[in-house]
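Try it yourself: sequence plus adenosine-5'-diphosphate, in.
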Amino acid sequence: MSSGQTVLRATALVKRYRRTLAVAGVDLSVDPGERVGLLGPNGAGKTTTLMMLLGVVRPDEGVVEIAGHTLPAERSRAMAHVGFAAGYLPLPERLRVREFLTLFAKLYGLAHPGPAVEEALDRFGIAHLAANMGNELSSGQRTLVGIVKATLHRPRLLILDEPTASLDPDVAHKVRAGLARICAEDDTALLVTSHNMTEVERLCQRVVFLSGGRVVADGSPDEVAAFFGRDDLEGVFLHLAETEGERAR
Ligand code: ADP
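Structure, out:
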């Protein structure tokens, strides 16, 4: 299933915020081409984990290694292999989509920014939006442009935080197809958070559930559902949300 060196290896990550143990010893490895969902109820530690993987939050304990580069010492080299997009990241209002993407293609140091932008627009079927200004886009279109931006430099690891939260079902479908194609063609690894379990079942071959800052399950959607004796990921999510709620009380 996988080839080559592990893209992401996080070992024994711990992060404390005053009295809260946000992440309590997380191990996570992702191989090239793998599509992995990082799931769990609110407060489970997903965002804190993602921020540690991106080198934005420094772990109290543990090690993050991306494409063989260890954070924080080799963060720049590691991040050259990472694309990140989230529904909540803003786009400049007074730039056209093509200008915005070209700017990032240049920032990424691509040799041929123009063709890379056109290819990326085509890949996700949004060439018709290229001349639109940021402020002319719907929130779903903005999310989509953010994802296209994150794939411009053909990263080895693509991290997406709630990538399709504001998308119509047909656009979400397009995004999933585009992502699956990138992972298959480029061997890009995908790590994605979502609250939409149906979507995760469609996009990810593997899911990692966090609860209380710990990995409580790691496997295919079917394996994880069976492990908890539930019919599907929705059932697992609801079960864990209940547990998390009881812990918080
Ligand atoms: P999730 O993304 O799964 O909802 P988070 O990683 O955001 O979970 O949060 C995990 C726990 O850490 C929660 O209890 C949250 O309140 C706490 N937490 C997260 N970030 C901070 C912060 N900057 N300061 C204090 N507590 C935080």
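One thing you can check immediately is this: The domain at 33-44+80-248 is CATH 3.40.50.300 (Rossmann fold).
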